[in-house]
Specification:
The complex is a heterodimer of chains A (114) and B (116).
Chain A (H helix, E strand, L loop, with lengths): L3 E4 L2 E5 L4 E7 L4 E9 L6 E7 L4 E4 L2 E6 L4 E6 L8 E11 L2 E6 L3 E6 L1
Parallel strand pairs in A: 2-11
Antiparallel strand pairs in A: 1-3, 3-8, 4-5, 4-9, 6-7, 7-8, 9-10, 9-11
Chain B lengths: L2 E5 L2 E4 L5 E8 L4 E8 L5 E9 L2 E4 L6 E6 L2 E6 L8 E9 L10 E2 L3 E5 L1
Parallel strand pairs in B: 2-11
Antiparallel strand pairs in B: 1-3, 3-8, 4-5, 4-9, 5-6, 7-8, 9-10, 9-11
The chains are: A mainly beta (114), B mainly beta (116).
Chain lengths: 114, 116
């Protein structure tokens, strides 16, 4: 079982609409949680990073929330644009003896249609 | 500024042939280094990570190996490729802080490997 679960696996929305992507994790001890956007055939690019004490962080039309108690995070996209079509990946940084290690979710593939 | 280079961008190799993908990081020292694979339509799967020269941890058993001969160089290899090795391979780095925390990860542009 993947230690970082994302839902839905895929999502289709109309341009201008809002959407929310979910991320649940079981890995511990937790250091921070990041959301990445990955365009097809490209490397992921960071959208937000939140530490244990942060509940919400925004980056333009992207707003991420974190509930460290329930181990849940969400990424809310407002007023979607065609360029938002991509995979969105939740990444949890886990504290290991030799340093932190990243654990990736399977991603949500978002398609924004005109 | 820091940059990460990964090459080649695309590669077509026959079954049974060897593989060597290289990743180098510039502008930083002692980074954490990662190799990921992404099968078509799937999420990123961590293959190897390294916290220092010669220190390699493998996350999943597979036909691949990794080496870190220099601080900022990470190499993914295989002696004999399988059809199932096809996929999109990404190298990434993150800065490790003395207290154990690290910054966000920065990814290379990826290598699309097709084994035929």
């Amino acid at each position: 079982k993947n230690q970082v679960e994302q839902s839905p696996q895929s999502l289709i929305i109309l341009e201008g609409k809002n959407c929310t992507l979910q991320c649940n994790y079981t890995v511990s001890p937790f250091s921070n949680l990041r959301w990445y956007k990955q365009d097809t055939g490209r490397g992921p690019v960071s959208l937000t990073i939140m530490t244990f004490s942060e509940n919400t962080k925004s980056n333009g039309r992207y707003t991420a929330t974190l509930d460290a108690d329930t181990k849940q995070s969400s990424l809310h996209i407002t007023a979607s644009q065609l360029s938002d079509s991509a995979s969105y990946i939740c990444v949890v940084s886990v504290i290991r003896n030799a340093g932190n290690m990243l654990t990736f979710g399977g991603g949500t593939r978002l398609m924004v249609k005109p | 500024s820091q940059t990460i280079h990964q090459w080649p961008a695309t590669l077509v190799q026959p079954v049974g042939s060897p593989l060597s993908l290289e990743c180098t990081v510039e502008g930083t020292s002692n980074p954490n280094l990662y190799w990921y694979r992404q099968a078509a339509g799937r999420g990123l799967q961590l293959l190897f990570y390294s916290v220092g020269i010669g220190q390699i941890s493998s996350e999943v058993p597979q036909n691949l190996s990794a080496s870190r001969p220099q601080d900022r160089q990470f190499i993914l290899s295989s002696k004999k490729l399988l059809l199932s090795d096809s996929g999109f391979y990404l190298c990434a780095w993150s800065k490790r802080w003395p207290g154990g925390g690290d910054t966000e990860a920065f990814f290379g542009q990826g290598t699309r490997l097709t084994v035929v």
